[in-house]
Automatic annotation (TrEMBL):
Coiled coil: none annotated. This is MFS transporter. Residues 17-389 form the Major facilitator superfamily (MFS) profile domain. Its main location: membrane. It is a multi-pass membrane protein. Keywords: Cell membrane, Membrane, Transmembrane, Transmembrane helix. The lineage of its organism: Bacteria, Bacillati, Actinomycetota, Actinomycetes, Pseudonocardiales.
């Protein structure tokens, strides 16, 4: 991995570069989440169950996670910007293929390929910021990155549902493909950070996996992926089961992205005054409360309120874990961040795979009870772990 900015890198992140990274984050999140409000529509058109279509969502998330290490290796050898541009161009191909698939099998394959390619967007942005922004002021641009992600989530649940209802779900897949291609073109003007000799893959993995703090953070984010992202794919389906249209279900679950957007600004303004452990505790408690509510009731009002609470959980807890990830093994930042993303989306993919059959059978309470059971020890362990990390002088 390249030297940290404190050790002297020639490039610094300018405002234009940060904006392009934010657009990349927006596009990645739109592409990741847009299948959620379209599950019912795709299932109906292909004459398959929601569970069968949810395999495409799980494939996307799993490939997104597994591809992280590959992109980290490419990034260390060929540069951050070059890697993101290549990945976005390949994602464009995968997205266009997703729009043209003839059946569910090819949809699973195309979404898996697209997820593997989109995998470089946000982690690449995190590493770029880690390379070019000092750690003391790093959470601000990272929070801005998360804000753009939130807007992407919001637009995905609203826009994809509307497009699927009034045009076609294929148009939605084609749209993000075109945006990815255009973004790759504009990123050509970004300045590459100067990297040292690329480390050996094994030495990078050993450097991260031999770090006790890194192991803790990676375990925490695996559970976080299951808790905060696993059920998220199915919230529009839960609403649709209560009799709401695809468009309205998407509009209501857009409260998630909107709440992340609002809470992210709060986080950005409080990071200098509130200890990271307390940010994790607040966000985690918000997620726990959301699942308590959903276990009791999963009607429209309860789902919307819980969606807002989950957005708060993501804004406060995930942004703090994400900042922690950029500093837990600074000598191997690309590998550390890639493993962080791998564990996050592996947890999410496990959730999508496990919960798919439950949702198809209408067993919503079981899904929410499982996530509640996981969320409580996650919050306690993450809070205590981050507090201990701070007391050791970090």
């Amino acid at each position: 991995m390249s030297n940290d900015v404190e050790q002297g890198t020639a490039a610094t992140a300018d405002a234009r570069s940060l904006r392009l990274l934010q657009v990349g984050s927006f596009t990645s999140q739109f592409d990741r989440l847009m299948i959620a409000p379209m599950l019912v529509v795709i299932a109906a058109e292909m004459d398959r169950s929601v569970e069968a279509v949810s395999v495409a969502a799980a494939a996307y998330l799993l490939c997104y996670g597994v591809a992280q290490i590959l992109w980290a290796m490419v990034s260390d050898r060929f540069g951050r910007v070059r890697t993101m541009r290549l990945a976005l161009l390949l994602a464009m191909v995968g997205g266009l293929a997703s729009a043209a698939v003839p059946d569910i099998l090819w949809l699973v394959v195309a979404r898996g390929v697209t997820g593997a390619c989109m995998a470089a967007a946000i982690p690449g942005a995190l590493v770029y910021i880690g390379d070019t922004v000092p750690v003391k002021v790093r959470q601000a641009p990272l929070t801005d990155l998360m804000t753009s992600s939130a807007v992407g989530m919001t637009m995905a649940t609203v826009g994809a549902g509307i497009i699927a209802d009034f045009a076609s779900w294929r148009v939605a897949f084609a749209l993000t493909a075109v945006v990815a291609g255009v973004l790759a073109l504009f990123m050509g003007r970004m300045v590459e950070p100067e990297l040292g000799p690329p480390p050996r893959v094994w030495s990078s993995l050993k450097g991260v996996l031999g770090n006790r703090t890194a192991l803790l953070v990676l375990t925490l984010v695996l559970a976080e992926g299951l808790v905060l992202l696993g059920p998220l794919t199915f919230l529009p389906v839960v609403l649709h089961a209560s009799g709401l249209s695809v468009t309205l279900s998407g509009l209501l679950t857009a409260a998630y992205g909107a709440s992340v957007l609002v809470f992210a600004r709060v986080v950005k303004g409080r990071t200098a005054k509130v200890a990271p452990a307390m940010l994790i505790l607040f966000g985690g408690s918000s997620a726990v409360l959301a699942y308590v509510l959903l276990v009791i009731d999963h009607g429209a009002v309860a789902v919307v309120v819980a969606t807002v609470l989950l957005g708060g959980g993501w804004a406060f807890m995930h942004s703090t874990l994400q900042t922690w990830a950029t500093d837990m093994a600074p000598g191997y930042r690309a590998t550390a961040v890639s493993l962080f993303a791998t564990m996050l989306f592996t947890g999410s993919a496990v959730g999508a795979a496990v919960f798919g059959s439950m949702v198809d059978a209408g067993r919503f309470t079981t899904m929410f009870a499982i996530t509640l059971a996981v969320s409580v020890p996650l919050v306690v362990t993450a809070t205590l772990g981050r507090r201990r990390y701070a007391t050791r002088g970090h």
